[in-house]
Write a structure and sequence with these properties.
The chain is of the alpha/beta class. The chain folds into two domains: about 5-95 and about 180-279, Rossmann fold; about 100-175, Trehalose-6-phosphate phosphatase related protein, domain 2 (Alpha-Beta Plaits), CATH 3.30.70.1020. The chain has eight helices and twelve strands. The chain has helices at about 5-10, 40-50, 65-75, 100-120, 140-160, 185-195, 215-220, 245-279, and strands at about 15-20, 55-60, 80, 85-90, 95, 125-130, 135, 165-170, 175, 200-205, 225-230, 240. It starts with a helix and ends with a helix. The structure holds magnesium ion. The site of magnesium ion has 6 residues, from loops.
Length: about 280
Amino acid sequence: MAVWPKLAEQLKGRTAWVILCDFDGTLAPIVLRPEKARMPARTRQLLRRLLAHRGVFLGVISGRSLRDVRGRVGIPGLIYAGNHGFELAGRGLRFTHPAAIQHRSYLRKICRKLEKVVAGTHGSQVEWKDLTASVHWRGVKASERGALKRRLATVLAPEEAAGRLRLTRGLCVLEIRPPVDWGKGAVIDWLLDQGIFPKGSFLIFIGDDRTDEEAYRAVAREGGLTARVGPCAWRSRAQYQLRDPEEVQAWLQAVMRMLARSARQHKKEESDELVSRGD
Ligand SMILES: [Mg+2]
């Protein structure tokens, strides 16, 4: 892949790397029912090994609830952001967006209404995620999707028009969020402001859905690297395209090799310096 020589160049001289990934469709293959999504054991092993490298920070930023994504990844020492960044925990940080707390009970109520709307449609599902909600329709027959979306709009459109909630659309999913401009990009900016990453850290973000686009923007602004997984129906901002979560795995492995090489190089330079000083 043409990315490697360029990436090797970008990584040269860096002593810290912040690798942020989305979960579904990026680390874990997409499945019909979201509760069945699993991260492959090999990916978990890779993430653990990456984390063991000095100067490597890892984070998972997902649309799932914080509790859910943390449980599915299950690696201590990572930064986890759930609900598209409305909540975050890890590396001594703890954050919940005030708007999410403020709108929680109202969104819960809307969610109950939506449960009734989808009740008759086989393959659709409303998921309450502690702070925000998702309506999934990956399992709904194509011929029934239009009618389902119209019924959902009857409940949601007036609420959205009144500014009481914000809707974002993903791959076979509708996200219902508090009415504030916040998401994966904003939480990355917030994270960078916390001062936990060394100055000059190299940023990487890998995602697959529309909600990841704002993360690409935030990371690109910092001179980082962005990659998108799977076929894309829109113009993505991501710099690189990966085929599937399996290729993400191969990619992370290659990044790890590169880090190991750069660490060896660094060590060699240090010892060469010692030797020359000894002369
Ligand atoms: Mg995803």
